[in-house]
Amino acid sequence: MLINKVSDQIKRSKYISRDLSWLRFNYRVLDQARDTDKCLFDRLKFLAITSSNLDEFFMIRVGSLYNYLDYGKERLDYSGLRELPFRKKLLDYAHRFVNDQYLTFNNELKPLFAANGCDIQKPGELTELEQKKVDSYFKNTIYPMLTPMVFDNYHGFPLLMNQLLTFGVVTRTTDEGKPQDRVTFVQIPQNLTRFYEINRKDKIVFVPIEDIVRWKIKKLFRNVEIVSVNLFRITRNGDYTLEESDDLEADFVQEIKSKLKTRKKGRVVRLEVERNPSQFMMRILKERWTIDNANVFTINSLLDLRCLWQIINHRHFRNRGFKQPASISPRSLPNDGVDLFEYLKEHDVLLHHPYNSMEPVVNLLERAAEDPTVLGIKQTIYRLADQSRVTAALLKAAENGKHVSVLFEVKARFDEERNIKEGERLEKAGCFVIYGISKYKTHTKMLMIIRKEGEKVTRYVHIGSGNYNESTARLYTDVSLLTTNEIYAHDVSEFFNVITGHSRPNDYKYLMTSPKNMRNQLIELIRQEARNAKKGLKSGIVIKINSLEDREVIDEFYKASKAGVPIKLIVRGICCLRPGREDLSENISVKSIVGEYLEHARLYYFHSNGAPKVYSGSADCMVRSFDRRIEALFLITNEELKREAIRILYYNLQDNQNSYTMREDGTYIKRRNGANEDAVDLHKLFYSKNATEEEVELF
């Protein structure tokens, strides 16, 4: 009865739960692992991604829910459910997902290993010679790093680290004629590879490190009776909120560093454990961490499927997977060898990554670092590549005496420590470095190069949706603009003054920014389409984003739909809007694109009665984007570049190979081309010049 009430409440709500929507997104990623048209190693890659995604989901979203539960705060989910019913619904759904994850791995992927030259085996399945090699590896490498930590009346409960494989070994001794059980924890060090690799003539055998430790566990418990050996893994709450400090002189970086340490001690929100664990141990863990069966995930295979990356990236297999085509020149930059400093004086350039390389941006920055006429460089940085060429260029610019100011966002989740270290390197080189803006996360992506050219100073601007990370730029789809247009330059200069100083400009001509007024400006654009529709004028909205969650914007979409505005939304991940509901959203369609590349671009199109307005930039339609982040969307004013952006949206709508259609109940169905319909795969199509030239209409 209670289940029916919960289901009815969810169905009645005009919004979709953010967290349930996210889990449905991870199902679409899992769908890639089930795709039999893909090779084994690509399928393993997507399965590993679902595992990484789920780890972050538990750390952040489930962690956030427990911030309410643990401190008695009220929370009403978009689905209409309060904290406890929602917790049950969410964790039940997560259990179903994990079950489907492992069904995919055990039943669909593992049987393909032998035919692809690999296998996962336990030490007992190896030859005698191979066992000797594994035994030597245990003695020389693993054993010295293991630290048994007993918990009993004389020893406190040890701090078990987040997301490390841990053995709970239950032992029994007899004290004063009575048997006494106690549990000892052995964590597997994170700096050892997950698999020991054995090269055979016909295959590579991967031996899990946990099976090696289990095989030799008696070495750690000499002359002690072992009752059971149980492998488990915990996930701790990684969500934290930084409150704005009244002390303007407070060391913000030190505050972040101290917050990072709390992740090690955060409350446990998930316990993954192998089958048939010791009930004695489970009782201790549940009581210690205040969890119940809903938090416990019993795993019938490898714990932590992120370990599959070692197989995927093995030198024998890394070339078996998806082969990325060579990038093509942007339509607006026909010659790769052009002098950008000269070319950009007369032309704007729109880049569509990864189909267009990020090299023009990185090369421009590297040239600026060496160019004697460049006076200064300003840049926002959210995520960087390992061995970043961007950082190297900024260091070189500082060494060459140029003014370099960089805003490093130290609240970029899981990249905080790296960004702090990189920022400190730049500071030592003489750069002016700002580590975030108090309670706001700086998510916008901007670069400005100031160059003296005779009596004139020219500002070269780059602004886009993607990070300055040359590695992920090959895997994420993004849109960015290179320009020397004075209006863009003025707006970006003003915006840098806002985020590095204390300026409050009245308005921007080509920029829409948050937290100041982005939500209101987008709402006004939506309302204008509704007004046009009511007058009988042409109208239409097409928006491509990562996530749609902001209730105020969703409500405006609903009103515009009722006014007769056709609305087409391309939302990769979370979508809290309910499409196609009678008398609410009949004119709204939602699709999600999940495939070889991570769809990361943001594009906003408003028909405007035949004079379209098109924006791109860093912001999604989320509360955090509008209220808690520094974001920017830029208007694409050049008519040819605007047509390019419209073509990008058009082919996103046409794609029928990577697309899922969202239904009114929040579920998704895979879209396939019909018998008389050509296959359209946008992840291949955009490598063709033809896709950038065709004249198209969205409505």
UniProtKB/TrEMBL annotation:
<keyword id="KW-0547">Nucleotide-binding</keyword>
<keyword id="KW-0067">ATP-binding</keyword>
<feature type="active site" description="Phosphohistidine intermediate">
    <location>
        <position position="443"/>
    </location>
</feature>
<dbReference type="InterPro" id="IPR003414">
    <property type="entry name" value="PP_kinase"/>
</dbReference>
<dbReference type="InterPro" id="IPR036832">
    <property type="entry name" value="PPK_N_dom_sf"/>
</dbReference>
<feature type="binding site">
    <location>
        <position position="383"/>
    </location>
    <ligand>
        <name>Mg(2+)</name>
    </ligand>
</feature>
<comment type="function">
    <text>Catalyzes the reversible transfer of the terminal phosphate of ATP to form a long-chain polyphosphate (polyP).</text>
</comment>
<dbReference type="InterPro" id="IPR024953">
    <property type="entry name" value="PP_kinase_middle"/>
</dbReference>
<feature type="binding site">
    <location>
        <position position="476"/>
    </location>
    <ligand>
        <name>ATP</name>
    </ligand>
</feature>
<keyword id="KW-0460">Magnesium</keyword>
<keyword id="KW-0597">Phosphoprotein</keyword>
<keyword id="KW-0418">Kinase</keyword>
<feature type="binding site">
    <location>
        <position position="413"/>
    </location>
    <ligand>
        <name>Mg(2+)</name>
    </ligand>
</feature>
<feature type="binding site">
    <location>
        <position position="600"/>
    </location>
    <ligand>
        <name>ATP</name>
    </ligand>
</feature>
<feature type="domain" description="Polyphosphate kinase C-terminal">
    <location>
        <begin position="340"/>
        <end position="504"/>
    </location>
</feature>
<dbReference type="InterPro" id="IPR025200">
    <property type="entry name" value="PPK_C_dom2"/>
</dbReference>
<feature type="binding site">
    <location>
        <position position="572"/>
    </location>
    <ligand>
        <name>ATP</name>
    </ligand>
</feature>
<keyword id="KW-0479">Metal-binding</keyword>
<dbReference type="InterPro" id="IPR041108">
    <property type="entry name" value="PP_kinase_C_1"/>
</dbReference>
<dbReference type="GO" id="GO:0008976">
    <property type="term" value="F:polyphosphate kinase activity"/>
</dbReference>
<feature type="domain" description="Polyphosphate kinase C-terminal">
    <location>
        <begin position="511"/>
        <end position="675"/>
    </location>
</feature>
<protein>
    <recommendedName>
        <fullName>Polyphosphate kinase</fullName>
        <ecNumber>2.7.4.1</ecNumber>
    </recommendedName>
</protein>
<dbReference type="Pfam" id="PF17941">
    <property type="entry name" value="PP_kinase_C_1"/>
</dbReference>
<dbReference type="InterPro" id="IPR025198">
    <property type="entry name" value="PPK_N_dom"/>
</dbReference>
<comment type="similarity">
    <text>Belongs to the polyphosphate kinase 1 (PPK1) family.</text>
</comment>
<feature type="binding site">
    <location>
        <position position="53"/>
    </location>
    <ligand>
        <name>ATP</name>
    </ligand>
</feature>
<dbReference type="InterPro" id="IPR036830">
    <property type="entry name" value="PP_kinase_middle_dom_sf"/>
</dbReference>
<feature type="domain" description="Polyphosphate kinase N-terminal">
    <location>
        <begin position="15"/>
        <end position="119"/>
    </location>
</feature>
<dbReference type="Pfam" id="PF13090">
    <property type="entry name" value="PP_kinase_C"/>
</dbReference>
<feature type="domain" description="Polyphosphate kinase middle">
    <location>
        <begin position="130"/>
        <end position="311"/>
    </location>
</feature>
<dbReference type="Pfam" id="PF13089">
    <property type="entry name" value="PP_kinase_N"/>
</dbReference>
<dbReference type="Pfam" id="PF02503">
    <property type="entry name" value="PP_kinase"/>
</dbReference>
<keyword id="KW-0808">Transferase</keyword>
